[in-house]
Amino acid sequence: MALLGGCGGSSTPKPQPFPTTGAGVGTSIRVANCSDWQNGTVEARRRTVVLLRGFAGGPVGSSKGIQNGPVLDDSRAYRVLQSYCANQFARGFKLYKLYERAAAFTDAAVVALGEVHDELVRVRRLGCRETSDRHTVG
């Protein structure tokens, strides 16, 4: 009997939901920094993203127009924090500050800037010198 790969299913596991219980990285969401992020487990990091969403997305001011702070998609937030905290110079950066600043720029124009950043990070990781036919990094 021969089994055919790719028929009727996917070998890619479904992404697990971000945990809503348990501890995050650091002693408190208000003081957790990139060093805590780097020292945390994947599970603690994922929990931290949920805590940050709750913190940043809470009530703001008394405006009728803006009642809650902006939030990021959990997967996007995880990637943003991974990207920043991978840098040695960022070890003291507060996670909530990074999260809130990224969440403040969620419209389509700024998302495009995030995609440019992601592309530059990808190129840097690959060691490529060219990002497109017309643009060069470095």
Give descriptors for this structure.
single chain; 138 residues; mainly alpha; 2 domains; 5 helices; 44% helix; disordered N terminus; disordered C terminus
Describe the structure.
The structure is a single chain. The chain is mostly helical and 138 residues long. The chain folds into two domains: 23-58 and 69-105, no CATH class; 107-138, no CATH class. It contains five helices and no strands. It has helices at 34-39, 42-56, 74-85, 95-103, 108-126. α2 (42-56) crosses α4. The protein is globular, with a radius of gyration of 18 Å. The N and C termini lie far apart (55 Å).
Quick overview of this protein structure:
This protein is mainly alpha-helical and 138 residues long. The chain has helices at 34-39, 42-56, 74-85, 95-103, 108-126.
As an assembly, this protein is single chain
Instruction: Return the structural class.
Output: mainly alpha
Sum up the overall morphology in one term. Answer: globular
Largest sheet: none
β-sheet strand percentage: under 5%
Helix content: 40-55%
| Number of individual domains | 2
List the secondary-structure elements in sequence, H or E.
Answer: HHHHH
Uncertain runs are 1-8, 108-112, 131-138
Distance between the ends: 55 Å
The whole-number mean of residue pLDDT values reads 76
Query: How many DSSP E strands?
Result: 0
